[in-house]
Amino acid sequence: SDDNAYAEAMFRTLKYAPDYPNRPFFSLDEAQRWVEEFVRWYNTRHLHRAIRFVMPDQRHFGQEKAILASRQRLYRRRMERWDAPWSIIALVWWPMSLYFGWITAAWVANLSSLQVALGFAFPQTAAWAIGAAVALTAVHLILVYRRNMRESALVAVWAIAAVGARHWEAPMESSIFWGSSLCGVVLFVAVVLHGARNFTWPPPEGSSRD
Q1: 55-83: burial string, b at 16+ Cβ within 10 Å, e else
Q2: How close are the terminal C-alpha atoms of the chain, in Å?
Q3: pLDDT tens digits along 139-192
């Protein structure tokens, strides 16, 4: 039987309770009252690590999903780095975001070069170039709205603009120019709108904006 392990685990939980007495109980009634209060605290006030820091009662009565969803929305909102010290923004957040943006753009370029080196012709087609721009735009839109990485997205805007600039001489005849220009504009507008939204955070009292 493994009952002993569960009993020992419960004894440890009891002993590490915030108000565990530092003296023996004077009577059985006193010990029972303390255990009853402990059970009440454990179920209705204790944030349990093993169930993602919700209370056991919340888990038992099916409130966990709504609480975790609300917590996740809060995490996404407060991930904005604007409130961080400028030393963290300038020396940690900006370099990390800019480097990540460069890595994603370079990854697309290197993938194209690899395909050409292997003898494939499609990386030199307009469809491939436009598809790569669309994929890069989609990745950075997700990063902007999920991780607030606007600086990384601006690097992608620069990379996409560079692709369009190569076809500037005949823009009316180049689908690559128009496709990359559209992607760059969409991503840039998304960065501006997201930055304006977060610049005015927190919303006024009573606002229900997520």
Answers
A1: bbebbeeeebeeeeeeeeeeeeeeebbee
A2: 50
A3: 999 999 888 889 999 999 999 998 888 877 765 567 888 898 999 999 999 999
Alpha-carbon 93 to chain mean position = 14
Residue 183: left (phi > 0), alpha (psi -120 to 50), or beta?
alpha
Going by C-alpha positions, the residue among 145, 151, 140, 143 that lies closest to residue 194 is 145
What amino acid occupies position 66?
Answer: A
Asked whether 100 and 123 are in contact (CB, 8 A), the reply is no
- Residue whose pair of structure tokens reads 């995490």 in the numeric block: 75
Q: How many CB atoms lie within 10 A of CB 209?
A: 10
* Contact present, 156 and 140 (Cβ < 8 Å): yes
Global pTM reads 0.57
Q: Helices in the chain by DSSP H: which ranges?
A: 3-15, 28-44, 56-60, 64-78, 86-88, 94-117, 126-147, 150-165, 175-199
- Residue 54, burial from CB neighbour count under 10 angstroms (0-12, 13-18, 19+): middle
State the angle between helix axes of 94-117 and 150-165 in degrees (0 to 180), rounded to the nearest 10: 40
Report whether 76 contacts 146 (CB < 8 A).
yes
Listed residue (100, 81, 93) closest to 139, CA to CA: 100
